[in-house]
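Entry:
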Amino acid sequence: MRQWSDEEILDSIREWAAQHEGRPPGFNHWRSTKGVWPNSWTVRTRFGSWAEAVERAGFPRPPSVTPPTFSHEEAVRLRDAGLNNVEISEQLGVHPTTIGKFFGTTPRPPKNPMRRTRAERIADLQAALAKEADEA
């Protein structure tokens, strides 16, 4: 595995920007694009944060991403009113996972009635075989 120096990492950020109309890379874009540059986690580990590396490369510090906020009291009131996580998230304008994390649950999509578990299929087969044996 290649060992990147601090200056090589900063140069790779500058090179990226030169190839992208002067815009420095965002963490997710860098991570998801193939290229000859250090791994995004290497950059974060070396500089403490992605924003610090971008700033040290000579670009404005990217804004931090803050999670959306919502009224915890309102979420509890909606849950007490019988709404599920998805309905609560729609009311409060946040992602269902945000509500799931708040309540310590994860939202699950509705069960697809066409999708059956292996155990359900085996039980149906056993019932059909038993019925056939009774009729014989």
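The chain has a mean pLDDT of 84.
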